[in-house]
What does this fold into?
Amino acid sequence: AVGNLLAPSLARVTRVLAVYGAQTPPITWPRAATAFAVTTAVVVLATVRPALRGVRRSTLRSLASNTRPPHRPGRLMRAITGLPLPLPVWLGLRGANRRRGRFLANTLGLTVGITLLITALALRTGVDTFRHQGLSLSDEPDVISLAADIANQDRVSSLGFTVAAFLIALALINATVAAVFAAHDHARNHAIMRTVGATPGQTVTAFLVAQLTACLLACALGIPLGVAFYESSTRGPLDPIGLSLLTYVATILAALTLYGLIAAIPARLLARRPITPQLAYE
It folds into this structure.
């Protein structure tokens, strides 16, 4: 219902009224059922695994301590241990290795955001290249059929940029939520580190190293995925992708900087709290 109310305003702002239409599409039973089914499916897929794990555990085991033995360091971690790294950096990498499930989930969420960002940048570059080349609509039959519905390519680019902007904003929200939960998840370990002499600054640095490692891995995965997604979903005058090496480097630096700032806020707040309550955190 809220989407139906906001869609006309967004269509006017983004100049895609020809795509959306003058009248607001009615909320029909099939559309409502589709939205409900997709939303329910997403929630079920996200919760079925932890729900089954909880059901299969006995009551006695559930009431007992949830402490699990740490993962044994693999070859990569043993190789890193031998490097002359600062202590906070080593602790951050070790923390990422100990909580592999959370690390991989965080990496996956960030990868989606990087993929969408690369796709949006490629779309903008493709549209600008198409415009500068001065291709006429008469030379492109595929564009003619599209122009009959949406008038010109400016509206196509506006629609694409709007969708990409919303998806990137969603990815930022997801990254913020992931950083907050990760900070709370590491709060007890960081409190233990402080009891044996680590400073709050060192615990924050260790947390940021783990998070930025996930972000760097997400860039390594998201950039080629974004390129592949753009090239597989666009046809005609917008092919091929025209991003420069400097764009990829700037994307990596911007992602690391932005996510580092997002992750630093909850980490610094938790580092200022007393140690005793955090030792009891579950």
